Every structure is written in structure tokens, then in C-alpha cells.
Predict the 3D structure of the following.
Amino acid sequence: MTARELFQHILKKKSFLCVGLDPEISKLPACLAELEEPIFEFNRQIIDATHRYAVAYKPNFAFYESYGARGMAALDKTVRYINKLDTNIFIIADAKRGDIGNTSKMYARAVFGEMPFDAVTVAPYMGEDSVTPFLSYGGKWAIILALTSNRGADDFQYHPGTGQRLFEKVLNVSQRWGTTDNLMYVVGATRAEMLADIRKIVPDHFLLVPGVGAQGGSLEEVARYGMNNQCGLLVNSSRGIIYADSSDNFADVAGEKAREMQEEMALYLADRFKI
């Protein structure tokens, strides 16, 4: 999927919502407890209730790897279910990979060769050869961690270095590794005020923005500072949607939360693109 194709999908749905699929068995509704595949069934119902409002989904690998083989089987089944439901939905492997070149090749093969993901999150600490294997797959994306919203981000990401902060160097250097059609960046919503600075460095790239909703990030501020001439945003919400309710009606409530976000996004898109 190219940036242009992703933008067209955003305009069609009037949404730049990405739903994070981070299932924890201890938090699943009681009505799923006795099912043979509770993780997949939870995901399936969330997807069925939200897909009309979302342009992307982001399963976080840790929430599947932690359950061993059954968790990874649920992940694979979930991704294939999304892909069968709507091939235009952008599916992100939130795996935060990044290792020496040959190891990264194997990670890339896992997410792009064996499963139908469109993108994978990547930690850039080991440099170019740890990222470029993910860029060798046509139509696939590497989403590089740039400026995150966790408390520990202050430990390294704002380090001034030689005239620029570390996250700024990541943005400046990594642009040379790919294009606006295969490189995206993670920027936390709780750092929304930094989006204006980030847009000076990467004006045309898409940004994956977690932290709206349960983490307190402002969707209005993200749209104001981060939107570009192709929208350029995928805003992720996980807990605020998937755990909005724990009753038998959990999926319906998740759908309502997704709809509320989509309706707000539609206003920002209409204002910017006159749709």
C-alpha cells in the first residue's frame, strides 16, 4: 500500500483511526472465559464492531507472545481475519524489531513473508542495516520509533547531542533509508506540542500516533500540529476502545467509542480537505 492509497482510504472512511488489539486474558469479558479461543474471539468481535470506523489495526506482539503458541496462533488468525474482511485495512505488527542485518531479515520474513502485515514497528538504535531489510518488501512499511510517550523517553530521546536532540537525528538520518511510501514514524500523542517541530523535519511522512484516549493525548492537538497534505496521521487507540466495557456488550461499546473518534476525525478532515 502506498501513501497515496492510504490517504484515499482515509478520505473514503473519513477516519485516520488505528485500533490497537492488545488482549489480556485477565481483562477479557467473562462471557469469553470458557471459549476455546478467547483471544481470537475477543479480537473478532472488536474488529466486527469497529472496522467501519477504522483504517488500521495494530496488534501488539507482546500480548500474543506472552501466551506462547496459542497466543501466536490467535495473532495469525486475527491478522488473516482482518485481511479477509477488508484488504484495504492497514495492519501494523507492533513488534518493535531491530537487530543486526541478517536477524532483521528473518524478522521481516516473519511479518511480511509469513503473515499479511502491511507494516512493522522498528527500533532504530542499531542503525541502517537493522531497518533496511524491512524496506525490501514492496508495498510494506517500517515504522521507526522517533519520539515516544512513555516516561522513560526523557532518558535518551531528548539528549541534545551535537546541536540536535536524539529523536531529531533519528528523523534526519533515517529519511535516507527509504521513502514516504515505506517509512513512517512513531510519535506519542502526549508529546503533541512536539509535532510542529517534527513536521519541520519530516513534512511528508505518515506518523503513527499512540497515546490518545486512555493515555491522555489530545486528538485535536494531534490533528492541529501533525496533519499534512495527505493527512499523514494514523492515530492509535487501544485501551480506550477495546476495554471500554467488560460486560457482554463489550463489542457494541467498543464500536461506539470508535465511532465517536471517527466522527471527531471527520471534522478535522473536512476542515482540512473540504470533504
